[in-house]
């Protein structure tokens, strides 16, 4: 696959698996940007009818925790293998083998091949659009294209944590975004919500996210990251536009979290069966005033804690009776997903929100989940018995 043309990865893998393992068919299904459907990617790059993630065998394999599921059809065994890159599931590889060839060693190799395909797809998308086109179930607006281009991934995992995130753009994009970066000792997260709609909101969010990245990569504190991004936004817009932001910095050695709450995103924590909002002192959104000084607050995360960040489009959504989602339903949804891995939690919350709300969303919807495991010697059972350690 590394020697393959970027657009021909699936064809190359199909030929190899047919020759070495007797594969009768090899199909790649790519998740759309909302992870709601899986679109088959054809031999020549053509997209077939998408398969829903909800209530389908392929969707259950894509969402499940196992790296492999199989179904026997007479003398043929169908293998479903999630295509994963560092915790993010980007699609599903379906391979049909003769039953006599479906031995443990072959299955092990198929799991490895699915992982290798995930990494090669990530590299190939620098040079071809065929996989991006196949992922799309509709045309993106320019604002949405700009917004999605900023996102790091939908999931990421390490020994100390697992992250899952999901963004659903409103019809008229509102500029919500998330970002993260980690190294051997720390993890930094940001959730942003740009003022306005459409291209204006996307341009504003682009400036904010890249200003935060520029400051973060200089190795400075999140207080100074917020201050430098604030200055960049104010210099451009002179206070006429601003970005609501939540910044979090995790120290792996101590479990201490520094937080700068500069706007509307809310932070919730599940510890055991107790779910509560973490109240932070509100500070000015980035870019609202000149040379704003930001002060970080601290709190501690314990092994097994789950943190959930939601945008105002989520927590302020209302039921037909006028109840805000954050009043009771959000906590119920977090509790209902206590056994899910972090990567699956945002989609579960957004599905629950779709059943709760009175009308189609007028704002972007963003949910980010962090499961904290801590350093190996500090681990205890995960959220409500889900089990500590990476999922």
From TrEMBL:
Q: Which organism is it from?
A: Streptomyces lydicamycinicus
**A GO molecular-function annotation:** phosphatase activity
Keyword annotations from UniProtKB, A to Z: Hydrolase
What residue stretches are annotated with the PPM-type phosphatase domain?
Answer: 153-372
Give the protein name, as stated in the record. PPM-type phosphatase domain-containing protein
Q: Which PANTHER family match?
A: STAGE II SPORULATION PROTEIN E, STAGE II SPORULATION PROTEIN E-RELATED
Q: Which Pfam families match?
A: SpoIIE (PF07228)
Superkingdom, taxonomy of origin:
Bacteria
């Amino acid at each position: 696959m590394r020697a393959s043309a970027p657009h021909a990865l699936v064809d190359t893998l199909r030929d190899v698996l047919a020759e070495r393992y007797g594969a009768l068919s090899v199909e790649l299904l790519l998740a759309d940007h909302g992870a709601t459907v899986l679109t088959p990617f054809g031999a020549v790059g053509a997209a077939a009818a998408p398969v829903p993630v909800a209530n389908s065998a392929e969707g259950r394999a894509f969402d499940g925790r196992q790296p492999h599921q199989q179904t026997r059809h007479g003398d043929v065994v169908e293998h479903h293998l999630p295509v994963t890159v560092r915790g993010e599931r980007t699609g599903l590889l379906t391979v049909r083998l003769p039953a006599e060839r479906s031995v443990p060693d072959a299955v092990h190799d198929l799991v490895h091949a699915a992982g290798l395909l995930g990494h090669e797809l990530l590299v190939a998308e620098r040079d071809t659009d065929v996989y991006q086109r196949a992922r799309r179930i509709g045309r993106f607006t320019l604002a949405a294209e700009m917004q999605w281009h900023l996102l790091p991934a939908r999931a990421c995992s390490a020994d100390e944590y697992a992250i899952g995130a999901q963004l659903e753009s409103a019809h008229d994009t509102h500029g919500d975004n998330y970002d993260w970066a980690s190294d051997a000792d720390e993890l930094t997260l940001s959730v942003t919500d740009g003022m306005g709609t459409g291209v204006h909101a996307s341009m504003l969010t682009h400036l904010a996210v890249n200003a935060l990245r520029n400051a973060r990569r200089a190795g400075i504190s999140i207080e100074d990251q917020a201050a430098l991004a604030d200055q960049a936004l104010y210099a451009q817009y002179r206070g006429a536009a601003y970005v609501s932001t939540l910044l979090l910095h995790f120290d792996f050695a101590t479990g201490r979290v520094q937080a700068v709450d500069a706007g509307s995103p809310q932070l919730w924590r599940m510890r055991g069966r107790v779910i509560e909002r973490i109240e932070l002192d509100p500070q000015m959104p980035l870019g609202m005033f000149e040379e704003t000084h930001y002060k970080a607050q601290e709190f501690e995360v314990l092994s097994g804690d789950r943190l959930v960040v939601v945008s105002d489009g989520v927590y302020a959504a209302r039921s037909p009776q006028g109840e805000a989602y954050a009043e009771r339903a959000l906590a119920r949804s977090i509790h209902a997903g206590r056994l899910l891995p972090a990567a699956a939690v945002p989609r579960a919350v957004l599905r629950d929100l779709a059943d709760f709300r009175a009308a189609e969303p007028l704002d972007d919807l963003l949910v980010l989940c962090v499961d904290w495991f801590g350093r190996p010697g500090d681990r205890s059972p995960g959220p409500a018995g889900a089990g500590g350690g990476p999922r």
